[in-house]
Amino acid sequence: MNGHEAGPDAPREREFDFLRVDEFLRSLLPSCALGVALQSGLIDFLVQNGPAAAETLADRFAADAKGMRLLLDQLLANRVLTDDHGRFALSEDFLKALSYRDLMELKLEMSNLGVFDLLRFFPDLVFRPGEFARKSDFCGLFAYDRCFEKSEESVRLTRRWMRITTVLTKYEAQACLKYHDFGGYRRILDVGGNSGEFALRICRSHPRAEVTVFDLPLVCEIGAAHVQREPEAKRISFVKGNALGDPWPSDFDLVSFKSTLHDWPEEAAGRLMTSAAEALRPGGTLLVFERGPLETSGTPVAYAHIPFFLFQHSFRSPRFYTQRMQALGFRNIGVRILDLGTPFLLVTGVR
Ligand SMILES: C[S@@+](CC[C@H](N)C(=O)[O-])C[C@H]1O[C@@H](n2cnc3c(N)ncnc32)[C@H](O)[C@@H]1O
Q: Which residue's C-alpha comes closest to atom 9 of ligand 1?
């Protein structure tokens, strides 16, 4: 299926190949078994050596025989393994998903962290979302207030959550690049552009593009190091600042917000969009690429989606963005909803 115009009856199904990792992260126990298999080296062993018996695996990994059986059972239930007369092999489907190992491991790590918050604070999420956000360890990872200083501790904390945003963006950017043609832009501003990963993906597919990342000081420093060895680094620059208080660079053909506006209450998000409009040349484009509300429609939330479920209160409907764009005088406003496991909104308008 292709990405589609927004509409209540529009069908949605998996489009991007990297989403196959979610098939192995549906529920807790099989996902945890996969995590153990990845971390212990069992998956690598099977990749390198081919099918093996349970006893061989128990010996090789110095595991309790019943424990190994338990692990193999869950991996079978999760279709990570096949069992051919007692010889366990990685399934074809799992091998395909393993080509996105960084994403698979990241989603597992995020969900393993997020599930603790759910177990402890679910009532807060339901009745007192603000309280939940304050208590949640997962939400607390994104400590933007630590990004104005450069202590050893703030660098460690910032790197930790930037790894999450960077790996997610590596994949999510593909959807944005597929459905929005960046070919006509030279000067691009990515607000909250983080490690420069989105900028890098744009520059890699558009040799004319030059992207400025506008983000908090420490984030920009870590970002500059992230892209510095890439051939596209010459076309990526970083502007350190607080987008809600400091002057913005201007004269851009495109200003983008990727997974950034949902962090802010409506008033602040609106102000950011106003500043973005002012940073555009006449005829320039504003692009918002943000997660939208989860559409669970009565089905259980997959283990892989727990981290996004925790942020559910922040994800807005496309109407918020289109109304702001209309109020700012944008024309040709378009909305597309893409299925990246959870819905992603691609909202654009021309100044
Ligand atoms: C959820 S992250 C998204 C990062 C990236 N765009 C992505 O899609 O992965 C939000 C980004 O906004 C940045 N940010 C937060 N507060 C900011 C501010 N006041 N001014 C500029 N950037 C800010 C953060 O440092 C972070 O990089």
A: 165
